[in-house]
Amino acid sequence: MSDYELTDEQRMIRASVRAISEEHFKPKAAEIDRTRRPPKEHVKILAEHGFTGVFIPEQYGGPGLNLVDIVIIVEEVSRCCANTAIMVGCTDGATPRAILHLGTEKQKQAYLPKIAKGDLLCAWGMSEANAGSDIGNIQTKAVKDGNEYVINGAKLWCSGAQASDLFLVLVRLDSAPGLRGVGAVLVERGTPGFSVGKHLDLIGFRGTGMAELVFEDCRIPAENLLLPAGGMGKLLQVFNADRIATNPPICLGIAQAAFEAAVAHTKERVQFGKPLAELQGIQWKLADMAIELEASRALLYRAANRVDMGKSNAIDASIAKVYINEATRRVTDTAMQLFGAYGLSEEFPMERMFRDVRGMSIGYGTTEVQRTLIAREILDGRYSA
Ligand SMILES: Cc1cc2nc3c(=O)[nH]c(=O)nc-3n(C[C@H](O)[C@H](O)[C@H](O)COP(=O)(O)OP(=O)(O)OC[C@H]3O[C@@H](n4cnc5c(N)ncnc54)[C@H](O)[C@@H]3O)c2cc1C
Questions:
Q1: Ligand 1 atom 52: residue of nearest CA
Q2: Which of the two ends of the chain, N or C, has the fewest CB atoms closer than 10 A to its terminal CB?
Q3: 124 close to ligand 1 (CB < 6 Angstrom)
């Protein structure tokens, strides 16, 4: 297999997820955005077809698919409903991945089989009011008290929070400065002292149930510790793989849908006596969109495949994320332009796609921070063509 060529099985996964998404998710996408409702019922549909928790190994109840498979699934779901793609991340994202790679056997047994069935959704709380890109400034504290930890603090911008049952929470565990004092705990919904705040209404992804997490003397069993202080390097490695699995394929799916809609619109819309698509200036815009989509897909599938082959991925994930975040913003912007005033109307999906893509170059590590990570790899001699 070349770095990103798909196998027959992967083509079948794509066809199957596309059919499910076209039938069930696409017709609901506008309503989910308008009503700000996380589409949990779509998780059930995906679970019925075996498309939840797909990276989870068979011993914990999942099919043990690889990262390329996940990218295919997320891209196809996002092409029809980006908010549903975030729900996929609640079963395939950072939290279950961290449990698999860093958790105790008891934590894996307790959570992974339920996640694989789509019965337990997960979110992760890292960002705080004064800790965005600078996660070394995390202030939420977990203090050991006998067989428990007592958590106090608050997390911001937690995607999927209102739909989720289990939360990976980054906390300050000891007095060591910066990231060295930070670790992670698992907190279940319903734990006294823990509450999920009101919906945070961003420009896009309005149906993801994004919310604040609040901890007021919240006591969890000490066995819910996922990562002790000093281990953040390991968690950041998990986030690197997840950075490929969620944000870029979601962007790609949205931009692919915008592109397809723009092609159809320019073939139908007649101005000056002929379809827009017959004008060379319009054709060149369509060609540029296709070039950016293909380049994005090549980068993404190559990055995912390198992870599956066990090769280093730190720079691959960052390069793919930056390029795809920015290219898909350009593609959705051009698609909107090609729709004219219709593109700006809430009656049509274009403005939602434009809004949804915009935040993705901020979420999951901004494009500026990714560029800093790429530069560090180059300057430390870890990058070669
Ligand atoms: C759609 C979306 C989903 C999200 N989901 C989650 C989630 O599930 N869980 C969670 O914990 N958080 C989540 N976040 C929060 C996200 O992780 C933060 O927004 C992100 O880390 C940036 O932090 P900030 O917004 O505080 O911006 P800041 O860190 O304040 O940055 C502001 C600006 O300064 C730039 N900047 C900062 N530092 C540097 C630097 N060293 N060099 C150059 N430029 C710099 C940034 O690139 C940015 O342009 C989400 C955000 C979005 C938009």
A1: 363
A2: C
A3: yes
Quick: pLDDT tens for 121-165.
999 999 999 999 999 999 999 999 999 999 999 999 999 999 999
Give the Å distance between the CA of 367 and the centre of ligand 1: 9
How are beta strands 122-125 and 166-172 bridged, if at all? Answer: parallel
In this structure, is the dihedral angle defined by the CA atoms of residues 141, 145, 149 and 152, taken in order, positive or negative? negative
Q: State the total domains in the chain.
A: 3
**Per-residue model confidence as pLDDT tens digits over 31-54:** 999 999 999 999 999 999 999 999
**pTM to 2 decimals?**
0.96
- Of 83, 92, 93, nearest to 209 (Cα)? 83
Residue 181 in contact with ligand 1 by CB distance below 6 A: no
Residues 117 and 156 in one domain: no
Question: Which range of residues forms the domain containing residue 63?
Answer: 8-121
Tell the burial category of 35 from Cβ atoms under 10 Å away from its Cβ (0-12, 13-18, 19+). Answer: exposed
- What is the rounded average pLDDT of the residues 81-105? 97
Ligand 1 test: best mutation among 203, 214, 366, most atoms within 8 Å of CB?
366
Residue 313 has pLDDT above 90, yes or no: no
CATH of the domain at 35: 1.10.540.10
